[in-house]
Amino acid sequence: MNAGFRLPALIVAVALVCSPAAFAQGTKPAPKTAKPPAKAAPAQKKAVTPAIPAPPPPPTDVRYKTRYTTGAETTESVTFITDQRERYELGDIVLIKQRDQKRNIQISRAANSYVIVPEGAPAAAAAARPAGVVNVTVSIVDLGERRDVFGREARRVRTVMQREPQPGACDQSKALTQTDAWYIDMPKVLAAAPDTTKAAAASGCADEIKVSETGDAKLIGFPISYTTTLTDLADKEAKPVESSMEITEFELSKLDAALFDIPPGLTAAADAR
Predict the structure, then answer these.
(1) Measuring CA to CA, which residue among 59, 86, 64, 61 is closest to residue 77?
(2) Which of 38, 83, 246, 263 yields a CA-CA distance of 20 to 30 A from 269?
(3) Is residue 222 pLDDT above 60, yes or no?
(4) Dist CA 14 CA 136 (whole Å)
(5) Smallest Cα–Cα separation from 139: which of 197, 232, 234, 219?
């Protein structure tokens, strides 16, 4: 091989050795660097809603003030009622009913004294009289009028009651009573109270009362006001007697328990006299 041929061949050999491909074949690749794992996003804390306390139940105790008018005479009273006790103030006298203790308390402010009467105590003995029958007819009519009273809807209702004693009845009073009244729904504490309106028979008279009623008795609720006309049917010369009642204050509230206990400093009396 001549020198002229060897020189180009040498140049080609050097070029092959120094080419990038040849370098790559003779050189190990650098190790790849591992990427750090991606950090997980922090878990979001659930928002804690603070517990809202339940609102207290609305008060159910009742306090109301009443004005009674008969002719030219006017009297006022104040009544307080809870689920187990009542207090009634009229002038000098305070009456407290403690149904939970089955007793009544009468207080005289002027005498600074009180007397306790057990509930259901027997009345003074009276001569027994033969009993008869008294027919009572009652008519209840909704007059259709409504109005707002103390934040409650009141309805106007007219009631007519006629009392007709039959022969042999010991109580021969014969009367016609007409009442024009405004009523609201009975407050809860009053609706739950026992009926104490039934009076004991006077003078030993225990006639059988037979009632005939027309109209919707549910219309008769708590009277806010009324005007009553009483006519004595047995006396033709007697003039009708008119009386009226009006509730001047009415509220539901939580009453102080001390109102229904005997105030300190009072003296116990032997009897109601």
Answers:
(1) 64
(2) 83
(3) yes
(4) 141
(5) 219
DSSP annotation of 170: S
Give the pLDDT band (50/70/90) at residue 29: low
Sequence-distant (6+) residues with CB within 8 A of 249 are: 63, 64, 65
Q: What are phi and psi of 260, to 5 degrees?
A: -110, 15
Global model pTM greater than 0.70:
yes
Distance CA 118, CA 124 (A): 14
Say how far apart CA 256 and CA 258 lie, in whole Å.
5
Please give the structure tokens belonging to residue 2: 């001549």
At residue 188, the 3 state secondary structure works out as helix
| Residues 6 or more apart in contact with residue 16 via CB below 8 angstroms | 22
